[in-house]
Amino acid sequence: MFYYVKGPVAHIAPYLAVIDCGGVGYACHTTANTLSYLKKGEVTKLYTYLHVREELFDLYGFSTEEERSCFELLIGVSGVGPKAALSILSATSPEGLAMSIITGDEKALTVAQGIGKKIAQRIILELKDKLAKGQLGTSAGGEQYGGSGVTIIPENKSTEAAAALAVLGYSQAEIAVALKGVDMESQKLEEIIRQALKRMVK
Q: How far is residue 84's CA from residue 56's CA, in Å, rounded to a whole number?
């Protein structure tokens, strides 16, 4: 329903930002990471997700499309609600979450408030399974990373970076262009992912 909202920041509270759009204040539930970029009175753009349950309509807003994509992935995991998803994305960046899933690092997820070992294991298991089945990284054109039913086993930085970018919602074609020419040997995986994301923004 809403792709993004843009306007001056009218109010900031824990996990909440109100954006004034033409005289209407949109209350957007958000992460600590997104809030760190906001200043009251300054114009900002938040990429939104409308969560509908029973008769409640909750709007969530994020400073980047990658963070919104990760939020949607997390709430798609059984037992993970919007509150838990915000907690995780407040404790880690989108690329950090992607790396945790690819490397199976459950400890990185349990740092988030209210996230126990069992939930962390479920997130990694379910999202890895989706990645293996080619259900992540699908673009509007229908391109997929990995292909249906193909198990992805990251063997080096290149494949790990590609898998992590697929978790963030990028297509195979976008990933190939973003990683072309990136120094895989001397840089850490997280820096490789950051460079690829910068290229995609350009």
A: 18
